[in-house]
Amino acid sequence: MKSYSERITALAGIFQASELVDQVGREGHCDPYASHSSLFSLLQVNAKDVEAVYDGLEGVQLGLEALVRELTAKTTRNIRVAQYSIQLLQLEAKLRKAPAKLAIIAKGIAEVEQRQGHFAFDHPNSIARFADIYINSVGSLGSRIMVKGESIHLNNPDNANLIRALLLAGIRSAMLWHQCGGSRWQIIFGRNKILKEVKVQMSRI
Predict the structure, then answer these.
(1) 81 lies in which domain range?
(2) Ramachandran region of residue 142, left (φ > 0), alpha (ψ -120 to 50) or beta?
(3) Using an 8 Å Cβ cutoff, are 66 and 16 in contact?
(4) What CATH number is associated with residue 130?
(5) Residue 47: pLDDT above 80?
(6) pLDDT tens column, 154-179
(7) Contacts of 134 by beta carbon, 8 Å cutoff, 6+ apart
(8) CA distance 136 to 139
(9) Is the pTM of this model over 0.85?
(10) Over the stretch 56-81, which tens digit does the pLDDT of each residue have?
(11) How many separate domains does the chain show?
(12) Burial label, 119 (beta-carbon count in 10 A; 0-12, 13-18, 19+)
């Protein structure tokens, strides 16, 4: 049984992916360290624990900060980040019922891992492959996440690939959240408990 602490780390992973997607859509770029950690998580299929999926708690610092903002602030909340996070949870729930789509993801991730000697996981070629995996699996489930932002950024092919790769990372975190016993009801009714654990984790960074 996974611990509550691990559950919240996975939740931070979801919010981090959403935060990064929003940054790319609005600004055409995103936090490089957080992006590196989120993409890193896609290849961690045999990690010893949830923290290791992100290469340590530092890897989800942006997500922890986003959680604090969304759970406490009234005037500075980012509704887009919250919406993307909810939609990622909904997509992951659909994906669990589609074994053929899960197989596409597993096969694609394995191919990216095999090519690590040629392209790092955050190389544009690998990001493009992650984007293809997203399109061929999650993107065909019938529910699309409509990313908002500036058209000049959204229409850039490299940005479009990065957004899809980050959404795939968000799905990965949503899978972890579910595996750790997480549910949408806990987010709705357990805000204070979540916030307390987030602050504990932030104090460890």
Answers:
(1) 4-203
(2) left
(3) yes
(4) 1.10.3890.10
(5) yes
(6) 999 999 999 999 999 999 999 999 99
(7) 164, 165, 167, 168, 171
(8) 6
(9) yes
(10) 999 999 999 999 999 987 777 899 99
(11) 1
(12) middle
